[in-house]
Amino acid sequence: MDELVSIGAPPPVAGVSRLPRPDWLRIRLSTPEPYHRVRRLMEGLNLNTVCEEARCPNIYECWGEHGTATFMILGDTCTRRCGFCAVHTGRPAPGVDADEPARVAEAAAAMGLRHVVVTSVDRDDLPDGGAGHFADTIRAIREQLPGAAVEVLTPDFRGVEDALDIVLAERPEVFSHNMETVPRLYRQARPGSSYERSLALLAEAAARRDSGCYEGRVKTGLMVGLGETMAELEATIRDIRSAGTGILTIGQYLQPTRDHLPVDRYVHPDEFARLRGFALGLGFRHCESGPLVRSSYHAHEHVGDPAASL
Predict the structure, then answer these.
(1) Which of 159, 171, 240, 305 has the fewest Cβ atoms within 10 angstroms?
(2) pLDDT in tens, the chain (310 residues)
């Protein structure tokens, strides 16, 4: 199957107007054999991916063309209810799946990945917020794929003491935590989170890097199109850079269902280019900025020379 389709809004609702979807939000819907191979592997090993759970628009490219996927650990039920996210929310099953790290590693090895990206739902029900499970997953990947780079995109762990150190002790090549949006929109977009807490987590990871306790990169991501102004975006990007973050991704918010926050506007590719230039001018090592960019999009390109700073 190979079809050019528009994306960017849920099905229309009678009597409710929707923003017209621009031409630049079009993807090639293609499901060749590699796509089905990845799907069968995930189903066979009972694994979740953010590609499916968050309805990522790049799934056809990543699964079908590159044979990659972003693993989502700690189950498929999130304890928070973010206004932008399609992942199921509710009360997760108690505890964690102790075999999940080994299955993630098995899948990564079967796919021959050289850069493995692991994220998770929020698990505020766990004493460590899931940090120990991240550590177990990194170790399992190291055993199966000793030469692969590992990138973790973690929750804020509710600010639990030592959670960050538990993860960084396993030396992931990239530590990432998404800021998502500007401070003014946190109450609507991330009601269970805090701008200050997320920024502090990035600053703590950068401080450990700068002190020599951690040798990897520090990364975050932002969405645009929720109603933020350019001035707010630039201020937020400055905050992120001041926290010591070296890698930034910026992408268009796409409303996953009619029950989620509406798209305020579709940002033109020229504005994404401007934001990328602004970020690089502040000293970011790498900025991936575009309508379809997501945190793990082209993630292997964000690492670069491990001997370089940031």
Answers:
(1) 305
(2) 444 444 444 444 443 446 788 888 876 666 777 778 888 988 999 999 877 766 776 666 666 566 678 899 999 999 999 999 888 899 999 999 999 999 999 999 998 899 999 999 999 999 999 999 999 999 999 999 999 999 999 999 999 989 999 999 999 999 999 999 999 999 999 999 999 999 999 999 999 999 999 999 999 999 999 999 999 999 999 999 999 999 999 999 999 888 999 999 999 999 999 999 999 999 999 999 999 898 776 666 656 544 445 6
Q: 261 and 226 in contact (C-beta within 8 Å)? A: yes
Structure token digits, residue 11 = 């099905």
DSSP conformation letters of 146-213: TT-EEEEE---GGG-TTHHHHHHTT--SEEE---BS-GGGHHHH-TT--HHHHHHHHHHHHHHHHTTS
| C-beta of residue 18 within 8 angstroms of C-beta of residue 257 | no
pTM for the whole structure: 0.90
- Written as six digits, the tokens of 228 are 């933020």
Q: Are strands 2-6 and 26-30 parallel, antiparallel or unpaired?
A: antiparallel
Distances (CA, A) of 70 to 38, 55, 166, 187, 224: 11, 12, 21, 27, 22
